[in-house]
Amino acid sequence: MQVRALAFDVFGTVVDWRTSIVGELEEFGRNHGVEADWQCFADDWRAGYAPAMDLVRSGELPWTRIDDLHRRILDELLLGAGITAISDDDVDDLNRAWHRLDPWPDAVAGLTRLKERFVVTTLSNGNVSLLVNMAKRAALPWDCVLSAEIFGHYKPDREAYLGTAALLDVAPDELMLVAAHPGDLRAAADAGLRTAFVFRPAEHGPERTLRKPDDAEFDFMADDFLHLADQLGA
Amino acid sequence: MQVRALAFDVFGTVVDWRTSIVGELEEFGRNHGVEADWQCFADDWRAGYAPAMDLVRSGELPWTRIDDLHRRILDELLLGAGITAISDDDVDDLNRAWHRLDPWPDAVAGLTRLKERFVVTTLSNGNVSLLVNMAKRAALPWDCVLSAEIFGHYKPDREAYLGTAALLDVAPDELMLVAAHPGDLRAAADAGLRTAFVFRPAEHGPERTLRKPDDAEFDFMADDFLHLADQLGA
Questions:
Q1: What class, spelled out in words, does domain B17-99 have in CATH?
Q2: Residue A210 pLDDT
Q3: CATH 3.30.450.20: does it fit domain B5-16+101-231?
Q4: Neighbours of A89 (CB within 10 A)
């Protein structure tokens, strides 16, 4: 196996979206004097994301960026929580919390090591501007910022995986997807990519225990990016 | 004026293609025991690039990456020079000289300063893999690697300029093209972008003196990236 490039899923794999979003929601609540179960609100916000992408995939919505899908879901959740007196600018600022997610503690150090040996790119359903703003804030050292937005196809559509290989000018089996989500990795494997599972048991918070998938299913199994770098000799 | 992002032309603006290509050709000649006027060869190689892109723009060729356009031109030039006994792998390696161009002396330091204040992206006709390889080798600190390849349109088509603004989620007049080429800047201005001219008098070598364009034509005139950073307060 000669892997030349690593493509990283971002939400949950590189960044701890839930802790960051809950923190931003709590701050929003304090600043605006509104209350809600912000942990639950964060989970509902995230849970709305896959169905929203399905509206795009089915053609019910034209191509719509994640920023705009996040905003649709947020508007519904705020309405449902009876929070209606917030200015559009302030809702927009809250929506951009997804641009301000903190990385997992190993992410920057692990990417820095992996970058010495491989091309490291994002392959996220997040839009390019979200990923660029996130990377600048968190000092994520990407070689390249690729997104579903560039391919006009959300993962797990195969166009996203094959499009990444094509832009990086590598064969599909020279590209490895790194992700914390078995479904994403299975779709990548179906498209011919190599796969590395990174276990992020805390992605959904302390009350939802995640199970590690079977060792045999993916090319590499890692506890974090440093462990992956060890295994890849980076 | 509120500029939020800077898009950089690359060949000639960020990197000194001619010195690098002449050096690579001389090394190729020594390694293979072949001779030619390598300065002239380099100029002809570069000169073939605009007509080759025009074949794509006119539809005579389907979308073709710069790597493949460079290779077509190179094959013709080698044939014309009577250099015919080189293996395909060795010609391919020579063709990838365009991935190994050295930056102008101010480029890395200037980009590093500008990146503190602005999103800095490539906007090059070079393909993504070429730009990524170049950036890794030369330590160019891009936030994002955008290319005509992503838009399916070579500059100066307006889709390339407007597509960059769209992916970065900025208005056209919040994006500034930085380039050493007036034609590129004029097309960017026509699309609504801001413009910064950087004077690279040595781009075409010691025997072709370049003229600085009129001061009034572009938003900024800079002698190099450090001078541009000074003017932009970065």
A1: mainly alpha
A2: 84
A3: no
A4: 8
Q: Where are the domains of chain B?
A: 5-16+101-231, 17-99
- Beta carbons of B229 and B198 less than 8 angstroms apart: no
The two structure tokens encoding residue B87 = 């293996």
Return the closest-CA partner of residue A120 out of A171, A164, A185, A173. A164
Q: Residue B202 gets which letter from DSSP?
A: T
Position B1 scores a pLDDT of 67
Tokens of A198: 């990174």
State yes or no: pLDDT of A190 exceeds 70: yes
Q: Please, what is the average pLDDT of chain B?
A: 96
pLDDT in tens, B66-105: 999 999 999 999 999 999 999 999 999 999 999 999 999 9
Residue of B nearest to A169 (CA): B129
**CA-CA distances (angstroms) from residue A25 to A20, A43, A205, B23, B214?**
9, 11, 15, 57, 52
Contact yes or no for A119/A4 (Cβ under 8 A) = yes
- Full DSSP string of A24-72: HHHHHHHHHT----HHHHHHHHHHTHHHHHHHHHTTSS-S--HHHHHHH
Which tens digits make up the pLDDT trace of A27-45? 999 999 999 999 999 999 9
Using a CB-CB cut-off of 8 Å, the residues of chain B touching A132 are 119, 121, 143-144, 168
One fold for B5-16+101-231 and B17-99: no
CB contact (8 A) between residue B168 and residue A143: no
Query: Mind listing the pLDDT tens digit for each residue in A108-136?
Result: 999 999 999 999 999 999 999 999 999 99
Place of tokens 């990197």: B15
Partner-chain residue, chosen from B115, B136, B149, that has the shortest CB–CB distance to A167: B149
Describe the strand order of the beta sheet including A175-179 as a list of residue ranges.
A144-147, A119-124, A5-8, A175-179, A194-198, A220-222
**A5-16+101-232 has CATH 3.40.109.10 classification:** no
**B64 interfaces chain A, CB cutoff of 8 Å:** no
A138 touches chain B (CB under 8 A): no
